[in-house]
Structures are given as structure tokens and as C-alpha cells.
Amino acid sequence: MQEILDAILSGDATSADYAALALPESYRAVTLHKDEEQMFAGLASRDKDPRKSLHLDDVPLPELGPGEALVAVMASSVNYNTVWSSIFEPVSTFGFLERYGRLSPLTRRHDLPYHVLGSDLAGVVLRTGAGVNAWKPGDEVVAHCLSVELESPDGHNDTMMDPEQRIWGFETNFGGLAQLALVKTNQLLPKPKHLSWEEAASPGLVNSTAYRQLVSRNGAGMKQGDNVLIWGASGGLGSYATQYALAGGATPICVVSSPQKADICRAMGAEAIIDRSAEGYKFWKDEQNQDPREWKRLGAKIREFTGGEDVDIVFEHPGRETFGASVYVTRKGGTIVTCASTSGYMHQYDNRYLWMSLKRIVGSHFANYREAFEANRLIAKGKIHPTLSKVYALEETGQAALDVHHNKHQGKVGVLCLAPQEGLGVRNTELREQHLTKINVFRELDERNIEHSRELDERNDKHSRNV
């Protein structure tokens, strides 16, 4: 493994050099264990601790198949699907691996008693399988997480419609939270040259998801002048939606949960910001009943920012907690585009406000290859920027997942895999200098918040001693 890392760090290794490197028999990877599927049985979701379920193991190198690539992973990141996997909700991912393993002799490799997680990576191609022409050893790449077989006609107009569509590193094995990863080569995209490894690894899943959900014709088809309500606008998914709204001539109405998160939205360029904690919205009276008065109060607040207009699009991903309000506040003929459902999958809403006002609910899930390419191209051109706030070592992935699980993070959190330190892998320093302020927005604000929290702790300690 050290020889592979040395070649990458040298910056001048050729494709032939990479092809000549010996591959290790095993590598370190963040895994779940099948025999621990029931370890959190009976616990509430919030009490399930990813640090207990995520392991750093040495695992065997998988066989390389046709149309696949083995990639040396310099950095990865934590997504909500990593959290869901780690707490075995809503189901254990080993069911996904078992079903995939039954598809063919080649996919049987994925059905193992361990699951290597991770749906993002930035790294270097080491080997390609039979039939691969577009990529070669030594190529610096990022990977999107769409895995498809494309043996059915259903997927050839939109690959997300393929009956065998899966999310790599969640519904397949050999994911990106590891020193090495196995991907299909139609997942590969050029690494943005002005970004470090950890910065380049962080946008993949959420950036492509936000692009399809908000910009693509397969999603909301946002246009100039649209008012867009964005829940969790400073988070991993919402931070990209905010950027797309601003870049596309729309007006984002950013919903956040703290003054610190409001500051992040302002730093991205948003002006219309609703702090839920300050406003005290309670959309549910109890577990069974919502409060329409709170929907109306939210709608009135939105109109203060829009000159009396309702929103054209709601960028929905919290799910159960907010969905009733989302349907209500959307303008007549508007669109609620939904994915993820991080607060719960069983949505409830008043259908009168949907059908009588001719609104649409559009389901959106990740992105097809073209959408992922376009989203990555905007990153590479410096039009959209990473929202990386904090970076963990590979052995700290459990803590990183816990922080995301408890919403202690801003934007995205990265994970160093083979990279020995942050800041490596930048190839275009001139472009980087042009956009450095935007690249560092989330990191600088996170550091500022950490320092503020430290000062408060010191102040409280001093007060306690005086008392």
C-alpha cells in the first residue's frame, strides 16, 4: 500500500508506473458485520451509536470484473446513507447485498458477511477490467454512486429507471470508506483539479442529488425567478440546493435551525433566511396530529421575503416532520420535490391543498450519469463549491457518522483514507486562488463556531468556580 501512496504523492508517476505496481492482498476498510444486525434492537434511533457498529478491518482485495475499476481512495465522506447503514435503519443493508448477489456469478462477490461502506471517493485508478477504454491507471478521479446493469430497456432513457439501479457503497459492497474501492467505470468522473482530495470527495452524492432534484427536468426544473424553499439549507444536501438556486437566478428561502447555520447561508450569498429555532415552529401537535396554523405561519413568513409570493418549488428532504407544511406553502401549480426523508418516511399532508391547487409531488433519487457529470463539471469550473466543514481520519469514521446522525455537522464531513494529511492533490493553484474564499466558507465558519463554543465553556467554568 505504501508503494501505491508513494506513486500518488510523487505527482509524476506515469500510467505504466501505476499499471506495474503490485496490488496488496488486503486493504483497510470501514465495515459493518452481518452478525451484528440486531445489536441495536429495541433502542430509539437517536440512541444507536455508529461508533459501536462501524469497524476498521483488513478485508481481502475483491476480484476485478469487466467494466470495473480498482481505485486507490485518497479521501471519502460521510453521507446520511452511511448513518442509516450504521444503525441498520430502515433495514439492514445485508439484505441489499444478498439480493444483489443472486443476480449473477459476478455480483455474488458482493454478498459477504461484512459490508464496506461509502458512496463517495476521490482517488487514482489502479486497474481497469476488460472492455474499459475511457479510463486508465493513473487517472485522478471522483466517483458518483449510481450502480446500474443496463440490461433492461427501462434504463436507457434515464439510467435511474434501470430495474437494477443501486447506490454503490450502500446497496453494493466495496465502497469508498476504505483504502481501495471497486467501482464500475461508468461511475468515474474527472477529479476537479483545483480541489484537494478531501474537498473533491465531498460533493459527489449530495451535489448530484441536488442537481437532479432541483435543476434537472427529471426533478423540479428550476428556472430564473423561481422562489425555492430549501429545508436544511446549510446541510450536506441543502447547501448545494442553495448554491444552485443562487447560480440559476432563483431566490432561495433558506430554512435553518440555528443562528450559526443562518450565517453559513449568508456567506453563500442567500438573503432570505428563516431560523426555525428562533421562530419556534411546531408543525406537529403530537405524534398523530399536525397543526395547520403553523403551516400558515410559515407561509406568512415566506411571503415577507418574496413580496407576497408563495414558493414555486419546495426542496424537501426532512420528510415526515415538514412535509405537510411543504405541501401547504407551495404556490398553486408549484412543485414539491422530495428525497431522503431524514426525519421519517411516513409522510402526512392535507390532500386538499395538493389536488385543488394543482400542485405536484415529484420523487427524486440520486442522479443519472449525465446529471452527475454536469454537477461535477460545475464543481470543476468553480461555479459550485464544496461544502466541507471538517475532516476525520479513517479510523474516526464512527465518530463522523455519529456527528452526522446527531446533526452536529455543517455541510459535509470528509474522511481521509490513503491521504496522510489534508490539502494534498491540488493541481490547478490559479483556479483555486480565484475561489478559495468560497471553498473555505464552511470550514472557516465551523472553526469560528468551535472557538465560540470553547469560549462559552471557559466562561461557564469560570462562573462555576466563582460560585
Walk me through what this model shows.
The chain is an alpha/beta fold. Strands 3, 5, 6, 9, 10, 17 and 18 form a seven-stranded mixed sheet that branches. The chain has a six-stranded parallel sheet with strand order 13-12-11-14-15-16. The protein has helices spanning 2-10, 15-20, 50-53, 80-86, 94-101, 197-201, 204-215, 238-247, 259-268, 276-279, 292-306, 323-329, 352-355, 369-380, 397-405, 429-439, 441-466; strands at residues 26-33, 55-60, 68-78, 114-116, 121-128, 140-143, 146-147, 166-167, 180-184, 188-190, 227-231, 251-256, 272-275, 311-316, 330-338, 360-363, 388-393, 412-416. It contains 17 helices and 18 strands. Strand 15 (330-338), helix 13 and strand 16 form a beta-alpha-beta unit. The relative contact order is 0.14.
Chain-wise SSE layout:
Blueprint: H1 2-10, H2 15-20, E1 26-33, H3 50-53, E2 55-60, E3 68-78, H4 80-86, H5 94-101, E4 114-116, E5 121-128, E6 140-143, E7 146-147, E8 166-167, E9 180-184, E10 188-190, H6 197-201, H7 204-215, E11 227-231, H8 238-247, E12 251-256, H9 259-268, E13 272-275, H10 276-279, H11 292-306, E14 311-316, H12 323-329, E15 330-338, H13 352-355, E16 360-363, H14 369-380, E17 388-393, H15 397-405, E18 412-416, H16 429-439, H17 441-466
Parallel strand pairs: 11-12, 11-14, 12-13, 14-15, 15-16, 17-18
Antiparallel strand pairs: 1-2, 1-4, 3-5, 3-9, 3-18, 5-6, 6-10, 7-8
